[in-house]
Structures are given as structure tokens and as C-alpha cells.
Amino acid sequence: MSRIGLMPVPVPQGVKVDVKGNEVTVEGSKGKLMRSFHPDMSVKFEDGNLIVARPTDNRNHRALHGLTRSLLANMVEGVTKGFEKVLELSGVGYRAQKAGDKLSLQIGFSHPVDFSPPAGIEIIVEGTNRVRIVGIDKEVVGETAAQIRAIRPADSYKGKGVRYAGERVRLKPGKAGKAAVKG
User: How buried is 111 (Cβ within 10 angstroms: 0-12 exposed, 13-18 middle, 19+ buried)?
Assistant: First the structure.
């Protein structure tokens, strides 16, 4: 039994929900999101709540039940509060700056790397080494942050590179640590 799928998704005041078959549109103060769900899942909007039901207790339907409910909850939260991810650049000379709508990164390569955000994503540069990715679609915000991080992930020897805020990088000892263990 999906405990997550059974919970209703509360819809706050000022949020419009339109359910047409397996396509759900959620519109709030931050924007509008639309998503199609699996045809076996039935979504109903009643009494200010979104309720997801599954046809059978089949394993596939149980998995889709919780997934559908979580995706709906993320849509409602996105159009009301929005989502954000924060990236940090660590390393000597590593910096980020905004160039129009593009993000220009100087992260140890011989040239600056330009990154164009997808539609609906806003990139904010704080100082020279913090980048905030803000948007209403949780999936796109996370994917954008992962793409920027993948340009130069944090190095496991010196810790230089792009990392999520709060991410801990375990540093390896290197050659000196290996020689100290033998002696």
C-alpha cells in the first residue's frame, strides 16, 4: 500500500487546478505548470485537495500511485513557493558572473565556460563564488544544477570545483598519505 499516494495534496488559496483526463494544469502566483500522468492513475480535485487513485494493487500501479502524488505536490509547491538550488565554486581563481542571460564560469580551464539556462530558470550570482538556480519546476531546477556541477565536479584531492551548498567532499590523502602509512 502506498502511504504517500493515499495522502491528499492540499491546494492553497489562489492556486487554480484544472484536471482534464490524465493532464493536470496548476496555476499560481509564480507561474503555470502542466503535466500529463499515466492513463491508469485517476486524479480528482475536490474540496480544495488533489486526490490520486489507482485501479488495482498491481506492483506497477502502486509505484505510479506514490509517484503521481509526489509530482502533483511538487507542482503545487512550485507555483506557490518555487524551488532553488545553490552551487558553490571553490578554488583559486574560480568565479562566476552573469553575462546577459548566460552564466559565465571561470573554473580552471584555459577559457571561460558559458552556460545558457533553459526556459523558466533564473540564475542569480551572489558574490563571485555562489550561484543560485531558481525556478518553479523542481525537475528542471535540479537538472540545471546538475549540468552546471558536471562541468567541473569537486576534485577529491584538493576539493576544487563546483559543488552543491552544504555538500561535503571527502579528500583523499594523495601520495604523501600513502607513504606515511608504509613507514
Answer: exposed
Instruction: Identify the pLDDT of residue 176.
Output: 76
Look at residue 12 and give its three-state secondary structure: coil
CB atoms closer than 10 angstroms to residue 76: 20
Decide yes or no: CATH 3.90.930.12 for domain 83-167.
yes
Q: Which of 144, 124, 138, 145 is nearest to 26 (CA)?
A: 138
CATH class of 3-80: alpha beta
User: What is the per-residue pLDDT for 82?
Assistant: 95
Q: Please give the average pLDDT of every successive group of 10 residues along the chain, which has 183 residues.
A: 84 94 94 94 92 92 93 95 96 92 94 94 94 96 97 93 94 76 54
Q: Going edge to edge, which strands form the sheet with 83-90? A: 121-126, 130-135, 83-90, 161-164
Q: Map out the domains of the chain as residue ranges.
A: 3-80, 83-167
Is the Cβ–Cβ distance between 80 and 28 less than 8 Å? yes
CA dist 172 and 153 (Å) reads 15
What pairing do the DSSP bridges indicate for beta strands 95-99 and 23-27? unpaired
Q: How high is the pLDDT of residue 18?
A: 94
